[in-house]
Amino acid sequence: MINRKRKAQIANLIGKIFILILFLVLIVNLIVPDKKESEMENRALESRQSFNMATIMSGDFMEQWETYLSDQFVGRNMWRSIKVGLDRLGGSRMENGIYIGKGGQLMEDIEVPEEDRLNDNLAAIESFIQNYEDIPVTMMLVPDAACILSDRLPAFAQVEDQRQMFSMVERNLGDSVNWIDAVSILNKHKSEKIYYKTDHHWTTQGAFYVFQEAAQTLGIEGDVSDNFVSYTVTDSFNGVLASTSGVGLDEKEEIDIYAPTEGDDDLVVNYVDEGRKTTSLYDSSKLETRDKYGVFLGGNTSVIDIRTVSTSQKRLLLVKDSFADCFIPFLAPYYREIVVVDPRYYSGTLADIMDSYRISDVMILYSGNTFFTDNNISGVFAGE
After folding, report:
1. DSSP string computed for 62-127
2. Which of 119, 107, 92, 169 is nearest to 144 (CA)?
3. How far apart are the C-alpha atoms of 172 and 43, rounded to whole Å?
4. 280 Rama class: left (phi>0) / alpha (psi -120 to 50) / beta
5. Which distant-in-sequence residues (6+ apart) come within 8 Å of 265 by Cβ?
6. Residue 266 backbone phi and psi in degrees, to 5
7. SS3 304
8. Which of 77, 80, 182, 217 is most enclosed, with most CB atoms within 10 A?
9. pLDDT tens per residue across span 7-43
């Protein structure tokens, strides 16, 4: 009888302590100011939503409130690290949609295109090519790491065949574009550091391998292999896949830039919609932030007009995602002007660009995953 009474008292005490802890956590969460972004996760955090009947009736308020509580919970990073650690101990080879491959190689899954969206994108590209039939168009889709480094995927991980997807795009566009086969080029160097371990981008070395073999297709004459020299600008890069997964946050990687060995590399970089200009393709201030990949052109933006002192009279329109950012320095010595458009941030059309600049060549450069999921491509190409 005494033991039963004592057990009841202990249970009651534990319950009170638990309620007290919950109350203290609630008070601390109310007192501690909200954070605008998570440096560890490299993303903006949900802010407190205003209370109104419309969002309550639609269900948006509760959804946003749950996200807000999750994002702003005190000690979030600590609890997140504990969860990841426990998952790893349990043998998990995927965190937050990111594969944890052999040797700690982090990789995104291969995205499957939505058929209607892909058809719209390809039709818009074909329509653009027909409207400017005298202008040569080159296209390159860069395979994502899980395509080339498939031998490093976790055991039993199955991803879609991105090579087949690329072949389908190539067949659909046919001879209307000059196709650069980045898959075959990168496959020859798969044992080298052609992708970052903690980020989804290819490395500058990987981009340079492709540029060397693509130069002829781009109309660049001669051997370009000795035309650039590499420099390491940071050895403490930790990419977005580490941020997203919570795995490999202590991993430090190098970012290299490639500078031309000959000729005058003077240029003016005009961030058109932002109204600012620089004289460099690199933003060294980004090396002091977590998003160090932003050293290339300062990160994502809508339209960039790069004017060089190249003796070439060619003017290139480059339609791209962020995989092109470390590729552009290889192109700069060979074009008088490069107009860079990222459809994800550009609200105009390519017809507007063609009307405003004396474009002589067009290049489309995307990573596979972005090309197959970006719903802005058709509108920018077709002008819709």
Report:
1. HHHHHHHHHHH-TTHHHHHHHHHHHHHHTT--EETTEEE-GGG-EEEPPPPPPHHHHHHHHHHHHH
2. 107
3. 36
4. beta
5. 259, 308, 332, 333
6. -65, 140
7. strand
8. 182
9. 666 667 666 676 766 566 556 555 656 666 555 555 5
**pLDDT at residue 231 in the model:** 96
Closest CA to 110 of 149, 167, 162: 162
Q: What is the mean pLDDT of the chain?
A: 86
Structure tokens of 242? Answer: 């580490």
Q: Which residue has the tokens 């190689």?
A: 105
**Residue corresponding to tokens 């540029």:** 211
DSSP 3-state assignment of 243? Answer: helix
What are the DSSP calls for 272-330, one per residue? GGGTEEES-SB-GGGGGSS-GGGGBTTS--SEEEEEE--S---EEEEEE-GGGTTTHHH
Q: What global pTM score does this model have?
A: 0.82
Sign of CA dihedral 90, 96, 97, 98: negative
